[in-house]
Give the backbone structure.
Amino acid sequence: MSIKQLIEGSVEIAAPPEKVWALVSDLKRMPEWSPQVRKKFVLGRTVKEGTRTFNINGQGKLRWPTTAKVIAFEPNKKLAFKIIENRSIWTYELEPTATGTRLTESRTTPNGTTKFSDFSVDKGLGGAETFEASLGTGISTTLERIKAAAEAA
């Protein structure tokens, strides 16, 4: 199975980094942004490095649970979490621009994915190529939804 090391997208948002950060760092709102995240439960009162989440993801009629741990938390700059079950890392990076913020979302697999994840993607989600294409589309959708919320009055 050929797993992409990097899937990413960026969007220009006409809002300051602080406003974009308030949306991105509120992990309980992730189901509003991501077409794959159905529910996200943040374990603990505040999101910070080390915070854990329990997630229900879905594609079509399929649903599957994952857990994650926040591995980077730099206010107004960077938020990253690692999915425990497959070792993937999801990162949101904010960069100030002349007109607001460039928000980049990425999914990396620097240490590959687990055999269980590979099997599940192959048998249940149409294979790595199909699944990763859906992740790329999902990143675009997520970024556009965050942009719309940040730019709303």
Observations:
- DSSP finds four helices and seven strands in the chain.
- The CA atoms of residues 78 and 93 lie 5 Å apart.
